[in-house]
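Hi U.,

Before I forget, here's the chain from the pilot set. I'm dumping it here mostly so it's searchable later in email.
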Amino acid sequence: MGYAFADTDEELAEVKNYAIGVGPSFKSIDKEYVQKVRELGLTIHPYTVNEKEDMRRLLEWGVNGMFTNYPDRLNEVIKDFKRN
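Structure:
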């Protein structure tokens, strides 16, 4: 999968020189990308995640947070996610 921005280990390492994390579109990432970002010590907050199914999947992948137009939905998903 090609990413719209830093997708190689080298590019992500460069990001660490000026940022603590990345904020990609959730549509342009996959589980492996999330893992790569986290392994490099960066945070990842995808945008704009509005459907519960997408929110749940991203939490399972290990994102640190996400941007959404529906924080109430995200809170419900997080509560359910923590219970399981």
